[in-house]
Protein backbone atom coordinates (compact mmCIF):
# COMPACT_ATOMS: atom_id res chain seq x y z
CA UNK A 1 0.00 0.00 0.00
CA UNK A 2 1.35 3.41 -0.95
CA UNK A 3 0.31 6.68 0.64
CA UNK A 4 1.35 10.19 -0.32
CA UNK A 5 2.38 11.96 2.88
CA UNK A 6 3.61 15.43 3.77
CA UNK A 7 5.38 13.98 6.81
CA UNK A 8 5.50 10.73 8.76
CA UNK A 9 7.34 8.98 11.55
CA UNK A 10 7.73 5.50 13.00
CA UNK A 11 8.04 5.10 16.76
CA UNK A 12 9.26 1.94 18.52
CA UNK A 13 9.30 1.80 22.33
CA UNK A 14 8.83 5.56 22.54
CA UNK A 15 11.77 6.30 20.21
CA UNK A 16 11.42 7.74 16.69
CA UNK A 17 13.30 5.25 14.51
CA UNK A 18 12.41 6.69 11.10
CA UNK A 19 11.06 9.95 9.78
CA UNK A 20 9.82 11.44 6.53
CA UNK A 21 10.56 15.14 6.95
CA UNK A 22 9.49 16.28 3.50
CA UNK A 23 6.68 15.22 1.18
CA UNK A 24 7.10 11.71 -0.15
CA UNK A 25 5.70 8.21 0.00
CA UNK A 26 4.84 5.92 2.88
CA UNK A 27 4.95 2.32 1.67
CA UNK A 28 3.38 -0.43 3.78
CA UNK A 29 4.82 -3.73 2.54
CA UNK A 30 3.02 -7.00 3.10
CA UNK A 31 4.60 -10.26 1.91
CA UNK A 32 2.69 -13.39 0.96
CA UNK A 33 3.82 -16.93 0.10
CA UNK A 34 4.12 -16.38 -3.65
CA UNK A 35 6.36 -13.29 -3.41
CA UNK A 36 9.95 -13.55 -4.66
CA UNK A 37 13.05 -11.36 -4.90
CA UNK A 38 11.97 -10.54 -8.47
CA UNK A 39 8.54 -9.36 -7.31
CA UNK A 40 10.18 -7.30 -4.54
CA UNK A 41 12.36 -5.57 -7.14
CA UNK A 42 9.35 -5.03 -9.44
CA UNK A 43 7.49 -3.45 -6.53
CA UNK A 44 10.41 -1.11 -5.85
CA UNK A 45 10.43 -0.02 -9.50
CA UNK A 46 6.68 0.52 -9.59
CA UNK A 47 6.63 2.53 -6.35
CA UNK A 48 9.60 4.67 -7.43
CA UNK A 49 7.94 5.49 -10.77
CA UNK A 50 4.33 5.97 -9.57
CA UNK A 51 3.12 9.38 -10.71
CA UNK A 52 1.08 10.22 -7.62
CA UNK A 53 2.84 13.21 -6.10
CA UNK A 54 1.47 16.74 -6.70
CA UNK A 55 1.72 17.65 -10.36
CA UNK A 56 1.45 13.95 -11.26
CA UNK A 57 5.14 13.35 -10.78
CA UNK A 58 6.90 10.31 -9.37
CA UNK A 59 9.18 10.08 -6.37
CA UNK A 60 11.94 9.41 -8.92
CA UNK A 61 11.25 12.66 -10.75
CA UNK A 62 10.74 14.73 -7.59
CA UNK A 63 13.58 13.11 -5.64
CA UNK A 64 11.03 12.51 -2.90
CA UNK A 65 11.89 10.34 0.12
CA UNK A 66 10.25 7.01 0.84
CA UNK A 67 9.37 5.51 4.22
CA UNK A 68 8.99 1.71 4.11
CA UNK A 69 7.17 -0.13 6.90
CA UNK A 70 6.64 -3.89 6.94
CA UNK A 71 3.02 -4.81 7.62
CA UNK A 72 1.98 -8.45 7.56
CA UNK A 73 -1.58 -7.48 8.51
CA UNK A 74 -2.20 -6.45 4.89
CA UNK A 75 -2.65 -10.17 4.22
CA UNK A 76 -5.25 -10.80 6.92
CA UNK A 77 -7.85 -13.37 5.93
CA UNK A 78 -11.23 -12.15 7.17
CA UNK A 79 -13.39 -14.68 5.36
CA UNK A 80 -14.45 -16.53 8.52
CA UNK A 81 -15.75 -15.05 11.72
CA UNK A 82 -14.35 -11.93 13.34
CA UNK A 83 -10.83 -13.07 14.17
CA UNK A 84 -8.31 -12.50 11.35
CA UNK A 85 -6.17 -15.37 10.15
CA UNK A 86 -2.59 -14.47 9.28
CA UNK A 87 -1.91 -17.63 7.26
CA UNK A 88 -1.80 -15.76 3.90
CA UNK A 89 1.18 -13.73 5.21
CA UNK A 90 4.62 -15.21 4.60
CA UNK A 91 6.56 -16.33 7.68
CA UNK A 92 9.09 -13.83 9.08
CA UNK A 93 12.06 -15.83 7.70
CA UNK A 94 10.70 -15.24 4.19
CA UNK A 95 9.09 -11.83 4.67
CA UNK A 96 12.04 -10.03 6.30
CA UNK A 97 14.48 -10.57 3.44
CA UNK A 98 11.82 -9.60 0.88
CA UNK A 99 11.00 -6.35 2.68
CA UNK A 100 14.76 -5.70 2.74
CA UNK A 101 14.82 -6.43 -1.01
CA UNK A 102 12.17 -3.75 -1.64
CA UNK A 103 14.23 -1.25 0.38
CA UNK A 104 17.41 -2.23 -1.48
CA UNK A 105 15.65 -1.91 -4.83
CA UNK A 106 14.47 1.59 -3.97
CA UNK A 107 17.92 2.64 -2.78
CA UNK A 108 19.55 1.18 -5.90
CA UNK A 109 17.26 3.42 -7.95
CA UNK A 110 18.35 6.49 -5.97
CA UNK A 111 15.64 6.77 -3.33
CA UNK A 112 16.34 8.16 0.12
CA UNK A 113 14.67 5.43 2.16
CA UNK A 114 13.83 5.34 5.87
CA UNK A 115 12.44 2.15 7.41
CA UNK A 116 10.50 0.89 10.35
CA UNK A 117 11.80 -2.07 12.37
CA UNK A 118 10.80 -5.46 10.96
CA UNK A 119 8.79 -7.50 13.48
CA UNK A 120 8.52 -4.69 16.04
CA UNK A 121 5.33 -3.21 17.37
CA UNK A 122 5.40 0.22 15.76
CA UNK A 123 3.39 3.41 15.91
CA UNK A 124 3.11 5.02 12.50
CA UNK A 125 2.05 8.66 12.39
CA UNK A 126 1.53 10.32 9.04
CA UNK A 127 -0.20 13.20 7.33
CA UNK A 128 -1.77 11.59 4.26
CA UNK A 129 -2.06 14.17 1.50
CA UNK A 130 -4.93 14.19 -0.96
CA UNK A 131 -5.70 11.78 0.59
CA UNK A 132 -3.95 9.40 -1.78
CA UNK A 133 -3.76 5.72 -0.81
CA UNK A 134 -3.12 3.01 -3.40
CA UNK A 135 -2.97 -0.77 -3.21
CA UNK A 136 -0.03 -1.78 -5.41
CA UNK A 137 0.49 -5.38 -6.48
CA UNK A 138 2.99 -6.81 -8.91
- Terminal CA distance reads 12 Å
The CATH topology is: D-tyrosyl-trna(Tyr) Deacylase, Chain: A
Report the principal-axis shape: globular
Q: In the residues, how many domains can be counted?
A: 1
Please count the helical segments. Answer: 3
Major sheet summary line:
6 strands, mixed
Q: Report the CATH superfamily.
A: D-tyrosyl-tRNA(Tyr) deacylase
Which CATH architecture would you pick?
3-Layer(bba) Sandwich
The CATH first-level class comes to: Alpha Beta
Mind telling me the C-alpha Rg? 15 Å
Low-confidence stretches: none
β-sheet strand percentage:
25-35%
Q: Helix amount, in percent?
A: 10-25%
Order of helices and strands: EEEHEEHEHEE
Kindly name the structural category. alpha/beta
Count of individual beta strands: 8
> What is the residue-mean pLDDT, rounded to a whole number?
96
Can you offer a commentary on this structure?
The protein is 25% helix and 35% strand. The protein is of the alpha/beta class. The chain has one domain (2-134): D-tyrosyl-trna(Tyr) Deacylase, Chain: A (3-Layer(bba) Sandwich), CATH 3.50.80.10. The strands form 2 sheets. Strands 1, 2, 3, 6, 7 and 8 form a 6-stranded mixed sheet that branches. A two-stranded antiparallel sheet has the order 4-5. Strand 1 (2-12) and strand 2 (15-20) form a beta hairpin.
Amino acid sequence: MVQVASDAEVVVDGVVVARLDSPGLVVLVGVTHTDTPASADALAEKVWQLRVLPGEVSAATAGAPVLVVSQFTLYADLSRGRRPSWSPAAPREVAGPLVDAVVAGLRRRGAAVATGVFGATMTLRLANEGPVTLVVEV
